[in-house]
Design goal:
The complex is a heterodimer of chains A (326) and B (539).
Chain A: H1 15-34, E1 37-38, E2 45-46, H2 52-55, E3 57-63, H3 70-79, E4 86-90, E5 97-102, H4 109-125, E6 136-140, H5 142-170, H6 173-196, H7 203-233, H8 239-271, H9 277-311
Antiparallel strand pairs in A: 1-2, 3-5, 3-6, 4-5
Chain B: H1 2-24, H2 32-42, E1 44-45, H3 47-50, E2 52-59, H4 61-82, E3 89-91, E4 101-105, H5 112-123, E5 127-131, E6 138-142, H6 144-169, E7 175-178, E8 185-191, H7 196-204, E9 209-219, H8 222-228, E10 237-244, E11 250-259, E12 269-276, E13 282-288, H9 290-302, E14 307-312, E15 315-321, E16 329-333, H10 338-349, E17 357-365, H11 367-421, E18 424-425, H12 427-456, H13 461-493, H14 496-530
Parallel strand pairs in B: 1-18, 10-15
Antiparallel strand pairs in B: 2-8, 2-17, 3-4, 4-6, 5-6, 7-8, 9-11, 9-14, 10-11, 12-13, 13-16, 14-15
């Protein structure tokens, strides 16, 4: 069985459509981020909804033996004097889980009291008993939340930088720049999707975003690698033709791999449960965008830069064709 | 050629055997349960999967600095007295906000030079000295480098103490380590603990014995105590409450005025054991360190007939009159409960915390919740893998078997590594495994597509396989190294869940280079070697 045999699409002719498509998604993401999310209680503001890991606060996930009555739990919290608690059902209804959140505490020492209060309130004034081994408590102080936020941002920047340097070494600086711009484009759109759909960004989502960075980079390199190889073979062909041919030659691989990875991630999204929901959502969006960006952002950018150089009378830079041992 | 191939196959089989050993060890039996048991013994599950507690504690290092300067205040007084210099007081102007500043007031103008040389002589290594102007006051400020070193030592000591206490509790595979994110933070991970309250009280307990000199008391309440000492308490003294027969002689809560600086501090006890005195009352038998013993001997021999107070957790537990000089060993009979004596001696045995701890992050996962996560993660992984494997078989026919085998081996190697290294498998780690599968498939697809291209160009089976691998290798190398670079950065800068993800991804990618390139090549070579002349590869 074989799909996409002998495809011959002039991808670069579509570049204005690509540009339009990318702009629409990036800008709508940016607008959503500009709309400043604000946590319902506690008033933590941020461009994207933040999970308890980053915004700080207390989150108690409780499993009940029977179907929980959200109204009665709110009542129980109010009776016990727990202020500003958010009570929402969690996951599928059949697991009987409820998520109770408390806002960020400015004072580290009052963090401890919060979770105990919530659990005591449930024991004292709610008829439906909880499953003792089914409780998950997250208490994050304001300092830790900010430290984690800073760490996540730094990790992303450093990983982009690391890849830029590697590609510079293996190809040419412009290849590295084009790949990093494509990856940045993917990250922006994925984070934008979280802002648009009002989904919370947690630590595991950051892991997913970094994965998508690696994945999208992988996709871009496969195309770049083909361009490098084809340039070595036929130096008389115009760069635009070589790029088109390279994309077409790798298209079958691109679609297959993306399709299969998309399937695994989709199974994660469907069967992975609520804990992995944000993670797999980021990957579902990221893999689609990452595949698109290697063809529609990175490659056209490479051609545009070379054409701009050619207009200024400079020679076209060819990538170093180093070959690893193997 | 064929001999070479056999060697390679032997190498692969041997490597696999090692990995399988890494996963199950020496099997205790071949029933499903026995195998399952040996796997859980070798593969360490993270807190999110098996349940447990994760705590980040901040060490209040200012307290350790405060204790150090408290001690210095005493030494300054002593040194000035020894040098026959007069002064009105030595104190800390703001013990809470500036625990590192000591002030000396009211020295004689004439002896300014001697005061300076005396203080310089003894304290210039640790403190910066200023003052000595017209108001005859001096300020000693701890040097920043000394303060940093002291803070570091405090954190190290706290880690040691917490480790001892956690071990005394019998928690299996605990983690107590510095937490990289912020200054003076400690990470404590306790698998299998879901009720934190009790554990936390033991870890965080700053319960320590201190012996203070008694200035006055007992008084009925704080007003009376203040009145008894001319209206207000001087800065080097403090008020503490106490009750019980051995402290106040009755059950009523009463107030004592004590010297702020202890005669024996919490970290100067070498050991303490619970016991009873000759009248059968609860008692703690203690031994002091040598230095503290000498100091205690000095103090007790000079103050026979005076009172001392034994203080624990901010309460006066016992007041005793000094009968004779005591050196290293003693017995404290206090109004302790049996549990208090037990906890106290445990605390003293494991060493006192050098400063108190504030929890700044605290996560617990119930065991059954973790089990749910495992089930969901594994279901997702299995479904994903099966779909991919089925597709590869349909799309690449005979070579699909090759790809599926490579995928399966990849998982075996990954788990084998987890078994050998003792790295923990977390939920994001499982996600990393799923991603590894994605990249593994990618490598196979790259190679197969390339072989197909070569065959289309009219090459024979051997040449097509050879060229296909050679071309795909460059791409696979670059994609893998780039992703490993980003995973390594995640490992370096990430913590907790992110780190677990980076570990499985990195190992998975390395395993993938082995299976997709080396193992897959060997299978192809074997297959091609058995083909008849001119027969195409099944791809």
């Amino acid at each position: 069985m074989e799909l996409f045999r002998g495809v011959n699409v002039d991808w670069l002719r579509l570049k204005w459509y690509f540009l339009g498509f990318s702009l629409i998604f990036s800008i709508s993401g940016l607008i959503a981020m500009g709309w400043h999310w604000e946590h319902p209680v506690g008033g933590v503001r941020s461009p994207v909804p933040l999970g308890v890991d980053f915004r700080g606060g207390t989150e108690v996930q409780v499993q009940f033996t029977g179907t929980p009555d959200i109204g009665a739990i709110r009542q129980a919290m109010a009776t016990a004097g727990v202020k500003d608690a958010t009570v929402v059902p969690y996951d599928q209804a059949n697991l009987n889980e409820v998520l109770i959140g408390l806002p960020e505490q400015q004072d580290e020492s009052s963090l401890e009291a919060g979770q105990k209060q919530v659990l005591d309130a449930l024991h004292a004034s709610y008829a439906n008993p909880i499953v003792p081994s089914g409780t998950k408590v997250d208490v994050v102080g304001p300092t830790v939340g900010h430290q984690l936020e800073k760490q996540a941002l730094l990790a992303t920047l450093y990983s982009l930088l690391g890849m830029l340097v590697y590609l510079w070494f293996r190809f040419q600086l412009i290849y590295g720049v084009a790949a990093v711009v494509a990856v940045f484009h993917d990250t922006l759109i994925t984070v934008g999707a979280f802002a648009l759909l009002n989904k919370e960004i947690s630590l595991t989502v950051i892991a997913a975003i970094l994965t998508l960075v690696g994945y999208s980079m992988n996709d871009t390199i496969v195309v770049f690698d083909r361009i490098r190889e084809n340039l070595r073979m036929s130096r008389r062909e115009s760069l635009a033709d070589v790029v088109n041919r390279s994309i077409n030659q790798t298209l079958s691989r691109t679609v297959l791999t993306s399709g299969l990875t998309f399937l695994t991630v989709l199974s994660l999204y469907i069967f992975g449960g609520a804990v992995l929901n944000g993670f797999s959502f980021a990957l579902v969006v990221g893999i689609l965008i990452g595949t698109y960006s290697s063809i529609a952002v990175a490659a056209p950018m490479l051609v545009a830069w070379q054409q701009w150089r050619a207009e200024k009378g400079k020679t076209v830079v060819l990538p170093a064709a180093k070959k690893p041992r193997g | 050629m064929n001999k070479n191939l056999n060697k390679k196959i032997a190498l692969i089989v041997a490597f696999l055997a090692i990995c399988v050993y890494g996963i199950v060890g020496v099997p205790k039996g071949f029933t499903g349960k026995a195998l399952g048991d040996s796997i859980t013994e070798r593969i360490h599950l993270g807190l999110d999967l098996r349940g447990g507690a994760h705590l980040v504690l901040q060490v209040v290092v200012a307290e350790a600095v405060g204790a150090e300067t408290d001690d210095a205040v005493q030494r300054v007084e002593q040194d000035l007295k020894t040098a026959n210099l007069t002064f009105t007081q030595v104190y800390k102007p703001d013990p809470v906000k500036q625990p590192d500043v000591i002030k000396v007031e009211g020295t004689a103008l004439a002896s300014s030079g001697t005061v300076r040389s005396t203080l310089d002589d003894k304290f210039s290594t640790d403190y910066d000295l200023s003052g000595g102007g017209a108001d005859n006051s001096w300020t000693l400020t701890m040097k920043p480098s000394i303060e940093t070193a002291l803070e570091q030592k405090t954190v190290d000591q706290a880690i040691e103490t917490i480790t001892d206490r956690v071990n005394a509790l019998g928690v299996s595979e605990p983690v107590v380590s510095p937490y990289g994110l912020g200054k003076n933070e400690i990470l404590v991970e306790l698998p299998g603990i879901s009720d934190l309250e009790q554990v936390k009280s033991i870890i965080q307990s700053t319960a320590r014995l201190e012996i203070h000199a008694v200035v006055g008391g007992p008084y009925k309440d704080e007003q009376e105590a203040a009145a008894g000492t001319n209206g207000s308490i001087p800065p080097d003294e403090m008020m503490l409450h106490g009750s019980g027969t051995l402290a106040t002689g009755s059950g009523a809560d009463e107030v004592f005025v004590l010297k702020r600086v202890p005669v024996v501090a919490g970290n100067q006890f070498r050991s303490a054991d619970p016991g009873n005195d000759q009248n059968g009352r609860q008692a703690v038998h203690f031994t002091l360190t040598n230095d503290a013993g000498d100091k205690f001997y000095d103090y007790t021999s000079k103050n026979v007939g005076q009172s001392m107070a034994v203080v624990m957790e901010g309460r006066v537990k016992e007041v005793a009159v000094i009968q004779s000089a005591i050196r290293e060993t003693g017995e404290i009979v206090g109004s302790f409960t049996p549990t208090e004596v037990e906890v106290l001696s445990k605390m003293l045995r494991t060493g006192a915390l050098p400063a108190s701890l504030v929890p700044i992050e605290d996560r617990t996962v119930g065991a059954s919740l973790g089990a749910d996560s495992i089930r969901q993660g594994v279901t997702a992984a299995v479904v994903g893998v099966l779909v991919v494997m089925a597709f590869m078989l349909v799309y690449y026919k005979g070579s699909g078997i090759n790809a599926d085998l490579a995928l399966f081996l990849n998982l075996v190697i990954l788990l084998g590594f987890m078994g050998f290294s003792g790295a923990t498998l977390t939920l994001p780690g499982i996600a990393g495994v799923i991603l590894t599968i994605g990249m593994g498939v990618d490598s196979n697809v790259l190679i197969f597509e390339r072989i197909r291209e070569e065959m289309r160009a009219g090459k024979a089976a051997v040449a097509a396989v050879d060229q296909g691998f050679a071309h795909a290798w460059t791409t696979i190398f670059d994609t893998h190294v780039t992703t490993i670079v980003s995973a390594a950065i995640l490992f370096l800068f990430g913590s907790g869940p992110v780190k677990g993800f980076a570990v499985t991804l990195t190992v998975g990618l390395a395993a993938n280079l082995f299976t997709a390139v080396f193992v897959s090549r060997v299978i192809f070579d074997w297959h091609v070697g058995r083909l008849k002349q001119g027969e195409p590869v099944s791809i």
